[in-house]
Amino acid sequence: MKKIKRYFFIIPILFILFIAGQYYFFNHSYVPQKSSFPIKIEEIRDLCKYDTLLPTHINAIITGTGELIPWTIAAGEKNIPNQSVLTSFQIVYANRTVVVDAPMNEKLFKKYRYGKEFLKENFYLQQKAMQNADLIIFTHEHIDHMGGIVNLPNVEALSGNILLTRNQIKSSKIEDVGINEQFLRKLETLDYKNFFMITPGIVLIEAPGHSKAHQMIFVKLQNGTEYLLAGDAVWNYANIEKAKNRPLFATMFGGENRRQLGHLIRWLHDLDKNEDIHIIPSHDPNVIKHYMKQNLLGKTLIN
Asked: For 267-301, how does the pLDDT look when each residue is reduced to its tens digit (9 = 90+)?
């Protein structure tokens, strides 16, 4: 009888702990009401204020498609589209181009079981665009954003055109990409704090959280249109629209800094609400295709 009474109290307690744990790990979203993210968009705009040699347009290309586990995208949200893509961007000037991100090749795509379909022709076009680019930069050092430079033909000759930040070079994740140390020593490196304009109309913005070396890329065109290539600060526009962080379990598994992500997501939410800037998460196909339909993004890369 005493055992039965003991179980009578223990079972409800365990049930409550289970419900609380489920909420905390899978449904709770840490996004503060006010962001401490240190960047003011006015300061970024001021850097591009008097430039006349701004880019003319931005192109995008998708090299692979896949799906994310729905509950990993935004805490407590189960009806968010979970399609995911590998994307590269090309910022086009009158006489030069800048490529942003180099998605992984087919071998790595299969090795890491990214998803549904590897788009060989698009990957070839992306590789060609990097070979002809004047500058190649990266939102961060993960393999789905940097793995495409590993087998790039004549990559040694392009070392002067590849720009990594000091934090990206120092990251342990750079080893997963497969770039050898000898080649890394040849690459251009940049050490900056908060933000830095690398060329007219392109400003790098430190945005750690997804990784320590993560950065976003602000772009202003000649016609005044502004973009923010958000990388993996969020995986889906819904994170920004709803001001929802990824669930704790997902951020722990991915080695992310949940607090930094929360403040960054609040900043992006407020920016999206109050400013006319096109924010583009790298993995959200719906945003990318929407902007392509509106001719805000070109549908392929030029070579």
From this structure: 999 999 999 999 999 999 999 999 999 999 999 99
Element (H, E) at 169: helix 166-170
Which DSSP symbol is given to 229?
Answer: E
Q: pLDDT tens across 134-181, in order?
A: 999 999 999 999 999 887 888 888 888 999 999 999 888 888 888 878
**Largest Cα–Cα distance of the chain, in whole Å?**
86
Q: Measured between alpha carbons, how far is 92 from 302 in angstroms, rounded to an integer?
A: 9
Q: Would you state the structure tokens that stand for residue 181, as one six-digit string?
A: 């140390």
3-state secondary structure of 214: coil
Report domain extents, the chain. 39-293
- List the beta bridge partners of residue 62: 87
DSSP H helical ranges for 171-236: 174-177, 181-186
- Side-chain half-sphere CA neighbours of 99 within 13 A: 28
Residue positions counted in the chain: 303
Q: State phi, psi for 100 to the nearest 5 degrees.
A: -115, 115
Q: Which of helix, strand or coil describes residue 91? A: strand
Assigned token pair, 95: 């006489």
What is the model's pTM? 0.91
Q: How far is CA 16 from CA 19, 26, 149, in A?
A: 5, 15, 50
Options 3.60.15.10, 2.60.120.340, 1.10.287.370, 3.40.250.10; CATH for 39-293 is: 3.60.15.10
What residue has token string 């722990």?
252
Q: Please list the alpha-helical segments (H only) found in the chain.
A: 2-22, 41-47, 106-111, 120-131, 143-146, 166-170, 174-177, 181-186, 237-241, 248-253, 258-274, 285-293
Q: What DSSP character marks residue 85? A: E
